[in-house]
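Figure 6 in text form: structure in, sequence out.
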């Protein structure tokens, strides 16, 4: 290919913006400065402010992966115990689809919870004996008993909650927030992810905290247990901090030359990620070192808190990240998928999570941080009121149930002591104040000062948003 042909081919590939930037020194310089400021500046996002006064500055999202049974935890249904073993009425099911795991059962016997419930706090909320610590903070919670979703299998259901779509490829919640609002801490990512170590269950994928079609710098950064909380952050053997800085400076110059030639935002994003990694070399060891925590705080989170990577340790780390103004902190705890042996399985899950969840809320409150930190707890769907598999006096399983389930919020503008929505006597259908996944997302963004219809990104010819073309703010759970 001759020089003229090569130049013509390159010109054809360039966008209109690239063309004008290349043909005018002034325009090119301005475009480069604008691109680099947008892609590398950590202070502000594209919104350059809030749509209205925010109630929350940050979010800690406690995701219970697998689908906790609302019937055994927070949605008290004594009728199920009275009708234990009877067939699920057709008038309740109304022909709604079942999964392939229980759809071929000859019978669908109702299974009442083997766990006792009591009312707690001034709100009088019914809470299972499995959650004694949550029961003590119930007046801080806005309990939503009318959640519902369309997804009936784990992967699309979890993807829906994390990205607003059942189909993989969209930006996650934390990525949207970083894109929209930026960061308030230049030495830590504004979106951090903590996954409980050693837990089996449905797989979790990095795309659940990915940036989708947004620039890669907006994706979540996963923290792990062990000597390297963030992979590939430390310098290789024989490389000093001075050499690292020199290498990054030289690499930045090369990248800037590439940006000047192509105005490729992915290159600018790469620069931002390298610089963030450099700053994190000192900030990450500081935030993950809990030696400065008083013993009474450690005791509050429970005995697992000194085991790095445990859910308790991750809850404490979440509070430490929140103190440093990390905007979105996502915790994942697997193992809630109890198709069989539910009583034993769910008891284990609650022993691992109940005390740390309650401690996190209490800890934030005693530090004056609960008012502007939104804590969200819940899974991707609920469980059926009928037993999957054999029902015995002390054992049963529950299948996936997207028609109704329970979540809760605390702090950050959520209405303390509220109980919102209602399910029928079988915990099978929502009968008042339904809350969809898109509604939850719209409400979370609202509490953060964002109009969910106005945080958009144009991709492949249309403007996308976290709530797609749906979602309404749920005023009943806002203080």
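Output sequence:
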């Amino acid at each position: 290919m001759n020089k003229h042909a090569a130049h013509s081919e390159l010109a054809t590939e360039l966008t209109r913006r690239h063309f004008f930037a290349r043909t005018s020194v002034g325009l090119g310089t301005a475009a480069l400065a604008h691109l680099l400021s947008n892609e590398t500046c950590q202070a502000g996002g594209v919104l350059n402010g809030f749509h209205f006064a925010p109630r929350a500055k940050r979010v800690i999202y406690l995701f219970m992966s697998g689908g906790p049974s609302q019937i055994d935890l927070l949605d008290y249904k004594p009728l199920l115990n009275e009708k234990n073993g009877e067939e699920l009425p057709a008038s309740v099911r109304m022909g709604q689809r079942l999964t392939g795991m229980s759809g071929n059962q000859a019978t669908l016997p109702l299974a009442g919870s083997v766990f006792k419930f009591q009312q707690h706090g001034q709100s009088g909320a019914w809470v299972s004996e499995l959650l004694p610590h949550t029961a003590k903070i119930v007046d801080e919670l806005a309990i939503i008993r009318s959640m519902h979703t369309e997804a009936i299998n784990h992967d699309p259901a979890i993807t829906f909650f994390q990205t607003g779509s059942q189909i993989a490829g969209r930006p996650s919640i934390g990525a949207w927030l970083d894109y929209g609002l930026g960061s308030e801490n230049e030495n830590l990512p504004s979106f951090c992810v903590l996954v409980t170590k050693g837990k089996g269950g449905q797989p979790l994928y990095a795309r659940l905290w990915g940036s989708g079609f947004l620039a890669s710098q907006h994706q979540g950064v996963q923290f792990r247990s062990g000597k390297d909380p963030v992979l590939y952050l430390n310098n290789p053997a024989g490389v000093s901090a001075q050499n690292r800085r020199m290498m990054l400076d030289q690499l930045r110059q090369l990248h800037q030359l590439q940006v000047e030639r192509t105005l490729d935002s992915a290159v600018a994003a790469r620069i931002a990620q390298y610089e963030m990694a450099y700053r994190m070399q000192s900030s990450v060891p500081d935030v993950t070192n809990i030696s400065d925590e008083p013993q009474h705080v450690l005791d509050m989170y429970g005995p697992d808190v000194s085991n790095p990577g445990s859910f308790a340790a991750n809850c404490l780390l979440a509070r430490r990240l929140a103190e440093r103004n990390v905007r979105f902190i996502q915790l994942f705890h697997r193992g809630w998928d109890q198709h069989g042996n539910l009583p034993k399985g769910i008891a284990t899950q609650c022993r691992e999570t109940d005390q740390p969840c309650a401690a996190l809320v209490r800890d934030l409150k005693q530090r004056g941080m609960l008012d502007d930190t939104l804590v969200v707890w819940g899974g991707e769907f609920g469980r059926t009121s009928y037993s999957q598999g054999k029902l015995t006096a002390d054992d049963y399983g529950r299948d996936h149930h997207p028609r109704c389930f329970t979540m809760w919020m605390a702090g950050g503008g959520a209405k303390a002591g509220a109980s919102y929505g209602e399910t029928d006597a079988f915990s099978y259908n929502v009968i008042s104040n339904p809350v969809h996944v898109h509604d939850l997302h719209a409400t979370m963004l609202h509490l953060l000062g964002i109009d969910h219809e106005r945080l958009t990104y144009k991709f492949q010819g249309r403007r996308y948003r976290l709530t797609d073309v749906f979602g309404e703010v749920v005023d009943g759970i806002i203080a």
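Caption detail: Residues 1-17, 19-42 have pLDDT under 50 and may be disordered.
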